Amino acid sequence: MQNINEIQRFSFDNTNVRGERVLLNEAYQQIIRRKDYPKALENLLGEFVSAIALLRDIVKIDGVLSLQCKGNGPLKTLMTECDEKQNLRGIAQWDEEQSFPESISLKELLDGGYLVITITPRNGRRYQGIVEIVGDTLAECLEQYFYQSEQLPSRVWLAANGAQAGGLFLQRLPAEQAKEGDEDAWDRFTHLASTVKQEELLGLETNELLHRLYHEEQVRMYDPKAMQFACSCSRQRTLDAVGSMGAIEIREILAEQGTIQVDCQFCAEHYEFNAQDLAAWLGDEGQLH
Ligand SMILES: [Zn+2]
């Protein structure tokens, strides 16, 4: 398949059901290429980036949305982010002493963990939602989240295989937004979507996938939006983070190493700062030389 990194919204005419489909290859591969991830985590990162892409398109805010899980099992933390320009990034940290099979579930990987969804608008207050890991899969956890936060029935299907990552989302909007009544629409559409195979979710373009599932329905498709891997780190932001360690610690590292070096965990960009760069944080006592 050619390079496809996009999300596309769709709806069904004369019903109150809407949907989203995301399909990523290059953007996903760039994220998992940063570290030597075990296969299970390559797949899970793919599910997470697909999920954050879907969430980002549903929660329409001007800002950054992040999806993170934390636990006590072999997976310590996994975090993905997406902003309003569809820039994606993600990272996972795990116990490298432990080995686990490719088929391990999210629940087993986290062993009593939870999922945090953080909405950070460019202007305005940050909002966090927490979901306990009750189901075996990320898709089940997200369905739980949508039900808790929006009280709207929603279904999510996610898949990833180290090359492609994809997701499908269906949601039934409140009754007042329903057009002509089609009482069975929700059951019919979710039942059909449940028949989707992993190779279809990852291998078919959106129009092909929707045709495969819903060729007897009136599907309205909206313009796809391109997504890409991009990191939001910058020299200034990294400098601010180093500065926040405080003068004592900064002085210690500078005395030992001459400069302070930082590698971005998401994109491997290398930053280096000397005493002059950090002068604002070191104050009058910053004169090392
Ligand atoms: Zn970066």
Description:
The mean pLDDT is 92. The chain folds into two domains: 5-229, Hsp33 domain (3-Layer(bab) Sandwich), CATH 3.55.30; 235-286, CBS domain Like, CATH 3.90.1280.10. The N and C termini lie far apart (58 Å). Strands 1, 2, 8, 9, 10 and 11 form a six-stranded antiparallel β-sheet that branches. Strands 7-6-3-4-5-12 form a six-stranded mixed β-sheet, with helices on one face. The chain has a two-stranded antiparallel sheet with strand order 13-14. The protein is built from ten helices and 14 strands. By secondary structure, the chain is α+β, with helices and mostly antiparallel strands. Bound molecules: zinc ion. Zinc ion is lined by residues 231, 233, 264, 266-267, 269.
Distance between the termini: 58 Å
The helix content is: 25-40%
Order of helices and strands: EEHHEEEHEEHEEHHHEEEHHEEH
Structural class: alpha+beta
Q: Biggest sheet, in brief?
A: 6 strands, antiparallel
Radius of gyration: 22 Å
Total strand segments: 14
According to CATH, the fold-level topology of the largest domain is Hsp33 domain
List the ligand species. Answer: zinc ion
CATH superfamily of the largest domain: Hsp33 domain
CATH C-level category of the largest domain? Alpha Beta
Q: Which whole number gives the mean pLDDT?
A: 92
Q: In one word, what is the shape? A: elongated
CATH-defined architecture of the largest domain: 3-Layer(bab) Sandwich
The helix count comes to: 10
Uncertain regions: pLDDT < 50 for 5+ in a row? none
Which assembly state applies to the chains in this document? Answer: single chain
Percent in strands: 25-35%
**Structurally, how many domains make up the residues?**
2
